Amino acid sequence: MKLNVYLARCGVASRRKADELIKKGAVQINATKVVKPFVEVNPGDCVKVYGKAVSPEKHVYVALNKPAGYTCTVKDRFAEKKVTELIPESCGRLFPVGRLDKNSSGLLILTNDGEFANRLTHPRYQVEKEYVVTVSPAFDNRDARTLKAGITDEGEILQAASVKLLKILQGRSVVSVVMKEGKKREVRRMFESLGYRIIELKRIRVGGILLGYLKPGGYRILTEKEKQGVLR
């Protein structure tokens, strides 16, 4: 097995991040520093990252309905509430896949499989993320064309794959938005740049994985069909 694949299966990092660790000289095989990602790891080899031995973990894949107010990062020691606190310790050491900001809610995938995470987040795989957004004032359907054409914000092009008006309420609207990239706060930034205020933002789908009827704070283990739908 190639070293970068081995590290991804150990849950150390995605294959791309593993490449960076290897090139930085952070990885050893049998006490020898290795700087090439495609070196083979053979049965019985001892692999260490920053001096700590690693081995393939049993992969766990969880779908969580993240409530607003929880932080996705596992590294922010100042965060009051982290999404990992909603998952029992019996699931092992998991990390959240992709971004869902503190004030947003909905579907969040957690895993210890770096390659799986890479498949969901790397732009080349174009995995769809669907959001239901409540905005004020009422949404002007002409803005759907603008969102699909793309908006430049802070030097980045933010572009929706699809936009659909779901419901018109008094002074506000509910809109479905599908994205394919995963840039920081991209949905909020797009609507705010057009003068809308976000009342609620919920993610309901990642690829073929649906939020369904999970209650806020609830979780479930992904089905084999859902896993293979990402990896195939």
Give a quick summary of the entry.
With 232 residues, this protein is an alpha+beta fold. The chain has 6 helices and 15 strands.
The CATH topology of the largest domain comes to Alpha-Beta Plaits
Number of helices: 6
Rg calc: 20 Å
N-to-C series of helices and strands: HHEEEEEEEHEHEEEEHEEEH
Number of strands: 15
CATH superfamily of the largest domain: Pseudouridine synthase I, catalytic domain, N-terminal subdomain
Supply the CATH architecture of the largest domain: 2-Layer Sandwich
Given the C-alpha coordinates, what overall shape results?
A: elongated
Determine the mean pLDDT: 93
Helix content: 10-25%
Number of domains: 3
Report the major sheet.
9 strands, mixed
Classified by CATH, the class of the largest domain is: Alpha Beta
Structural class determined from secondary elements:
alpha+beta
Percent strand: 25-35%
Unreliable spans are: none
**First and last CA, distance:** 19 Å
Key attributes of the depicted protein:
Alpha-Beta Plaits; alpha+beta; Structural Genomics Hypothetical 15.5 Kd Protein In mrcA-pckA Intergenic Region, Chain A; elongated; 21% helix; 232 residues; 9-stranded mixed sheet; 6 helices; 4-stranded antiparallel sheet; Pseudouridine synthase
